[in-house]
Write a structure and sequence with these properties.
about 0% strand; elongated; about 80% helix; mainly alpha; 5 helices; de novo design (two linked rop proteins); Four helix bundle protein; about 120 residues; 23S_rRNA-intervening_sequence; 23S_rRNA_IVS_sf
Length: about 120
């Protein structure tokens, strides 16, 4: 791999950030700066921490730390989406698919963390 852009977890994380961002802007105005902002920040944190961790890949422990932050942010993003689904059911109409994709990403990040722990050479 030549770049973080080659990582599936990065590509999927960035795609889900763009989707989440668009949904957050459909919330009522008063929620755009509360729940919407939380969703935008947590979903942005997923690929951002992958990028930062990759930049520190020379240091295995740092790489794992940032991948763990990414994984936690993915879980947080699902939580915010679940709140939006409950409070504003008309905002995310295909929420089962979105939650499924987030859970798929979460599993991929978790598996990538395990791979780095067991196989990464610095």
């Amino acid at each position: 791999m030549k770049s973080y852009k080659d990582l599936d977890v990065y590509k999927l994380g960035l795609e889900l950030f763009y989707l989440s961002h668009a949904y957050s802007l459909q919330l009522p105005k008063y929620e755009m700066y509360e729940l919407g902002s939380q969703l935008r920040r947590s979903s942005d944190s997923v690929p951002t921490n992958i990028v930062e961790g990759y930049g520190r890949k020379r240091y295995k422990a740092d790489f794992i730390k940032f991948l763990t932050y990414s994984w936690a942010s993915c879980l947080e993003t699902v939580f915010h989406i679940e709140k939006i689904i409950k409070l504003y059911p008309n905002v995310i109409l295909n929420h089962e698919e979105l939650i499924g994709r987030c859970n798929e990403l979460s599993a991929k990040i978790y598996n990538f963390i395990k791979y780095v722990e067991e196989n990464w050479k610095t």
